[in-house]
Amino acid sequence: MSRVTVGPAATELAGEEFARLLRPGDVVLLSGPLGAGKTTFVRGLARGLGVSERATSPTFTLVRQHRCHNDRGIATLHHADVYRVTSLDEVLDLALGELVEEAAVAVVEWGELAAPVFGADVVTVSIAVTSDEGRTIDVDGAGARDRAEAMARWAS
Amino acid sequence: MGVVRALAIETATTACSIALLDGNRREARLLAADRRHVEVLAPGIAALLEDFALRAGDLERIVVDRGPGLFTGLRVGLATAFALADATGAGLVGVTSLELLAHGAHEAGVRGRLMAVVDGRRGEVFTQRFELADEVTAESEPAVERPRDVVIAWATNGAAVTFCGDGVARYERDFAAVPNGTLHPLSVPPTLAALDLAGREPGPVAPLYLREADAVANFVTRDAR
Ligand SMILES: Nc1ncnc2c1ncn2[C@@H]1O[C@H](COP(=O)(O)OP(=O)(O)OP(=O)(O)O)[C@@H](O)[C@H]1O
Ligand SMILES: [Mg+2]
Description:
Chain A has 156 residues and is of the alpha/beta class. In chain A, 32% of the residues lie in helices and 26% in strands.
């Protein structure tokens, strides 16, 4: 399932609408080259979950928690960026796969680098750069296939 | 000469449990069932030692469950075991959650083929196959699998098998569908079984996460981008 965006605002909107498909316990792995728009997507996603502060890149903190306000039972968003991680122990140490069991979701930039840590039940979001302002956002993974209809509506 | 005084620590599931052996006396305690390892483990050990009128320095062995299982729990259990062994000079023995389940099931009278199944979260379980006869024998290496794949494999093969562990509790409907399968209620790796293994050679203990090796391989590819 993929959705094409032109300009950062469109990617933010895609993230915001994508957030409505999320459920507590979800782990979303974001991939795409430097500057693809992963953080931009998360900014919209955070808004869609009812996070009031602006989501910024957690590059220097590895993971940042945001309190959410929505009616879907998602109380916390864990936003991680594992690009600068030098050992996988650091990713394991975050224990994101366990933290999401407590009414939370996790979104991990560069998450595919550490995919085995998160197991099979993930949603993957890959952003490809097609031009200066153009992006193609692809959604896949076992976590996406179990809500394929909603995902297809998001993509169209 | 067997080990006389040993402490067992188990934190691989949402439960936190310990057991103490002093000669012929042994007692297991469930300290919490709900992910409160940090809060209950150290005070629980202190209280159990006190009830036995022992001090930490009296311990000869510390047997710790090194996984696989709940990462946040194992972190607490292993750190506590390392600290205690360091402070007291007690020998450290690492056992796996899967073999504890197998020994516990054996103790409970289960015989034949056993699948120990620990909740791996993220839709996966940690598994290992054992043969329970007079002795407990491992018949496979610990693995990470999807519950559905385990169920399909056993349904296809048709052999009689007993399943136990918190992974069975979590995916009970799936496992109940195996025609020749029996679900055993043993869910938490039993600490009394850990005490039975206290006589093993002590040595360095490393956590068993199982997902790590794959993950390391994946990580290296980053630099190739
Ligand atoms: N369609 C688009 N969607 C998203 N961003 C776009 C788009 N078009 C242009 N941009 C620009 O691309 C950049 C995306 O930056 P962003 O920080 O979101 O990327 P990132 O994938 O998080 O990068 P990094 O790998 O460094 O974390 C921004 O400067 C944004 O203005
Ligand atoms: Mg970013």
